[in-house]
Amino acid sequence: MHDHAGTHAEAGCHGHHRPEEALARAEAVCRARDLQFTRLRRDVLEVVASQARPLGAYDIAERLSGPGKRVAAVSVYRALDFLTENGLVHRIASRNAFVSCGHTHTDGAGLVFLICRNCGSIDETTSPEIEDQLGRTLAKAGFKPSSRILEVEGECGACLGRPAED
Amino acid sequence: MHDHAGTHAEAGCHGHHRPEEALARAEAVCRARDLQFTRLRRDVLEVVASQARPLGAYDIAERLSGPGKRVAAVSVYRALDFLTENGLVHRIASRNAFVSCGHTHTDGAGLVFLICRNCGSIDETTSPEIEDQLGRTLAKAGFKPSSRILEVEGECGACLGRPAED
DNA sequence: TTGCGCGCTGATACACTGTAACATCATGCG
DNA sequence: CGCATGATGTTACAGTGTATCAGCGCGCAA
User: Fold this and answer.
1) pLDDT (tens digit, 9 = 90+) per residue, A88-119?
2) Which among B111, B120, B126 has a CA at the least distance from the CA of B153?
3) 3-state secondary structure at position A16
4) At the topology level of CATH, where does A111-161 sit?
5) Residues of A whose CB is below 8 A from B141
6) Which of A18, A125, B20, B122 has the fewest Cβ atoms surrounding its Cβ within 10 A?
7) pTM to 2 decimals?
8) Which whole-number Å values give the CA distances from B13 to A19, B91, B120, B159, B160, in the listed order?
9) Please, are residues A98 and A92 in contact by the beta-carbon 8 Å criterion?
């Protein structure tokens, strides 16, 4: 069994995020699906991907705005809709916020979000075993799933190792 | 007005909701913990427990209001805070809504919410296996959990059996 | 009994999250 | 060019949740 994909960065709360990587993947996806990877969508993704913590839509709008340039929240929402539909960002329901997707899987891989209540960072992992068990549980209940969310709040390894450093 | 009680909800997805049961359990819990099970809290729980579908705070406020009696949403929120803290209702993050807890477990039993996108009902189940696997996954990630949510959206067995009944 | 503390509720205001509706702009295409 | 389509800008608004302060009820101590 292989220890899951490349989250080497999981060591730290500020697990370094690579906007370039996310952007490159987004470009590839959009090209493959013949979708427009517009400036706004790129900017939104870049902002989200540059943070280890989830950002609210209004946060993003604020970061994209500046003197003389104002980005309305509604535009951000539209971009986020596009990005989530294409698996490039995820919505964290328990926070009403968004993070960039660290993997390539679009869906159905037992995705788990680990939200640190101390440093606020989000780590993303997967567990085929959980997915498997969940599938069995749902089948037993006669339930046909179409989407699922699994979010865990607690303390990340880094914060446990050196509490309250920030 | 809203569709009160009967229209669909109970029709097929889940027949049995026992406000009395939830109320009795709430009384027991409050007595055991020396907490006040006030009128408002009781009313809120009763409304929530009477529905198979999750209710928003404003829905609850509306149902509790009537000619000459107005219950503000903020009061409902406070009651809901109390009820959730004591494991009597659960918040459904993906819906911004609340359902009464059907079990006695307060937390940590692999709780899974099954939300039917057709009839809107919520079913609650548990899976020790999922809980177990999740614990292992979290341990491997060096993450110490304090709370978790697992919500699945899809179609419930009843709706699969006879789709689009109403 | 009164006075006080404390928790619950009422009420207003406000912040945050998300959507509807419509105008505008760019692009591609016959 | 004229038109269709999709993305964005803009305003307004609905839905969700919180802050704050005031009043109320109830137990408890003096």
Assistant:
1) 999 999 999 999 987 766 455 789 999 999 99
2) B120
3) coil
4) Dna Ligase; domain 1 (3.30.1490)
5) 10, 114, 123, 125, 157
6) B20
7) 0.86
8) 45, 20, 9, 7, 10
9) yes
